[in-house]
Known about the structure:
The chain is of the alpha+beta class. It contains four helices and ten strands; from the N terminus they run ββαββαββββαββα.
Amino acid sequence: MNIPIVYEDDWLLVADKPSGLLVIPTPKNERRTLTSILNEDLERKGLAYRLHPCHRLDRDTSGLIIYAKGKSVQKKMMDMFKDKKIKKTYLAFVQGTLPKNQGEIKLPIEGSEAVTKYKVMQRRKNFTVAEVSPLSGRTNQIRIHFKSIGHPIVGETKFAFRRDFALKAKRMCLHASRLEFRHPLTGRLLQLESGLPDGLKDFLKNHE
């Protein structure tokens, strides 16, 4: 599988994950994950180091994910996520029409504070395209928050019933489009972007 690499240096690698691929195995112990594919490629090239994911994306979410070349760099990056020093931006297609042009969703997840900001980019016939910034990093935060306000992600199956919505999609329409942070070793400001994958572009074309 050809995984696009958006950024690479001596310490970090940022990959553009396709939808439908896990980052790491679940308890079911799946063998084929983004991490295994990338590390198998390193083995084929005869490189000794291994890549360690610094955060997660859901199986059905596409977009940017940061890997560290070594455990010490991974820890630095994970600490930066914990300290909210990494700005993440997603593009989401949500069911229905969001009434406000921008807003903030505050809803605890499993007892922990969680805040998601959004800005409307486009309003289509049965859905809204929004730029989304999770200010906290709870598992499934964006999906849970938009379901909580009655506008689940288009293609959502875990937190909403497909049958409740006329608009269907082959995949969940959520894409991690942008990362911004200072490099943990060089201090350089990195601003990395990933354009919409073909599946989401096609969805927009088919629902103008």
